[in-house]
Amino acid sequence: MLDRVSETVAQIAARIAAGDARALARAATSIENRTAESAALLRQLTPHAGRAIVAGITGPPGAGKSTLVDALARAIRHGGKTVGILAVDPTSRVSGGAILGDRIRMQAHHSDAGVFIRSMATRGAVGGLARATADLALLLDAAGKDYVLIETVGVGQDEVEVAGVADVTVLVLVPGMGDDVQAIKAGIMEIADIFVINKADYPGADRVESEIASVLSLAHRPDGWQPPILRTVATEDKGIAELLDAIAKFPRRTRGASGTHQQARPAEFAIDHLGIAVKSIEAALGFYQGQLGMQVASREIVPHEKVNVAMLPVGGPRIELLEPTDPDSVVGRFLAKRGEALHHVALRVPDLAAAVARLRASGARLLNEPQTGAGGHLYVFVHPASTGGVLLELIEDK
Ligand code: CO
Q1: What's the CA-to-centroid distance between 166 and ligand 1, angstroms?
Q2: How many angstroms separate the Cα of 113 from the Cα of each of 12, 81, 145, 290?
Q3: Which H or E run includes 206?
Q4: Is 345 left (phi over 0), alpha (psi -120 to 50) or beta?
Q5: Mutual orientation of helices 36-45 and 128-142 as an angle, nearest 10°?
Q6: Separation of CA 225 and ligand 1 centre (Å)
Q7: Tell me: the pLDDT tens digits for 369-383?
Q8: b or e along 193-216 (b: 16 or more beta carbons within 10 Å of the residue's beta carbon)?
Q9: Tens digits of per-residue pLDDT, 303-337?
Q10: pLDDT average, residue stretch 288-299
Q11: From 183's CA, which of 107, 111, 127, 327 has a CA 20 to 30 Å away?
């Protein structure tokens, strides 16, 4: 343990980010035990995180979640990717140690350095477990795991909070629990992004699917997502590839509560926002906020653009309402010419300087030099003549 004392937190973080399995295991224990150094370590690790797909696997006892998680881990490894598994048991008071079933699982993956498994039991108050789970997910993400699977035992409040840590929540149900679907819908049905009917070779799969579908038909998710209902037989690896595909393709939201992930996949292209030119933000909010029920995340005036801005999140991307403060402004002239309409589409790009260089070299019409916008991001506009008729804003987050 002496080497640990003499090693700085930054050095430990660097070793974890470089894939050092021993440093990872020790850091996990440190985070679970809330040692003095763990908070500093998490701060050092944060810049290394943000690439993993974090999936919560939840559902009632007996749904076969452990088997399903194991099958997913095999499929992930088969695809050449790495995975961390966090088995969270709010009902267990076991302190620090693994529950029996997980010891067996650990042996199954024992020789595989691409799989990291850790069991967690309840520690103190509700919310503490979610926090610890978020911190461990951050650790595994920073350690370069491609996937982090968070498995919870039941469908209570703890599970709902733990699910909030994940990018995508998978609710596992089984045939023969039609009434239970109704019973659990109050809690976790609303937060499920993907439904899985496991043990789908058992009688009653159709019944439970129609139960799920009827509950879903009543639900209105603010992000407009229609959760798919998939079928698996985890013991035979059936439907697992399709489930993994659905997990990987789920549109990721920004994880805010724990502060672990500020930005979804910065290294990829994504829609950042849609800019809509309006005569009056107040009038437009009557629709977006009043009638549609969306929330305003921020409002500001951008003096050099002579425009008032309201941002409304739509999952990850946002709608940007633009109201000119002066008719003699870009948005003001647009309104005079075209009326209220979609003004621009903003794409987040991995490397704005590289994109600008490529566009310049190919003769695309850039409307400005890359400059720093209100949110601290770099942006450039590309003329509709070059983009197929849409004013395109390219953005890179710092
Ligand atoms: Co914009």
Answers
A1: 29
A2: 19, 11, 11, 52
A3: helix 205-218
A4: beta
A5: 50
A6: 24
A7: 888 765 567 889 999
A8: bbbbbbbbeeebbeebbebbeebb
A9: 888 999 998 888 778 999 999 999 999 999 999 99
A10: 87
A11: 127
Calculate how far, in angstroms, residue 259's C-alpha sits from the geometric centre of ligand 1.
Answer: 25
What are the tokens at 391?
Answer: 């004013």
Span 338-370, pLDDT tens digits: 999 999 999 988 888 888 988 988 899 999 888
Unique residue bearing structure tokens 């609303």:
190
Say what the pLDDT of residue 169 is: 92
**For residue 378, what are the β-bridge partners?**
372, 396
* 196, 68 Cβ separation under 8 angstroms: yes
Ion ligand 1, residues whose Cβ is below 5 A away: 275, 320, 346, 393
Buried b (16+ CB within 10 A) or exposed e, 85-112: bbbbbbeeeeeeebbeebeebbeebeee
Span from the CA of 384 to the centroid of ligand 1 (angstroms): 14
Helices (H), 237-315: 240-249, 281-285
Give 126's contacts (C-beta < 8 A, 6+ positions apart).
90, 157, 158, 161
In single-letter form, the type of residue at position 30 comes to: S
**Burial 241-265, CB ≥16 within 10 A → b, else e:** eebbebbeebebbebeebebbeebb
- pLDDT at 284 > cutoff 70: yes
First to last CA, the chain: 38
Instruction: Tell me, in angstroms, the distance from the centre of ligand 1 to residue 322's CA.
Output: 8
For residue 223, the CA-to-ligand 1 centroid distance in Å is: 20
State the distance from the centre of ligand 1 to the C-alpha of 273, rounded, in angstroms.
Answer: 7
Determine the distance separating the centroid of ligand 1 and the alpha carbon of 351, expressed in angstroms.
18
**Rounded distance between C-alpha atoms, residue 73 and residue 106, angstroms:** 12
* E strand residue ranges, 198-251: 229-231
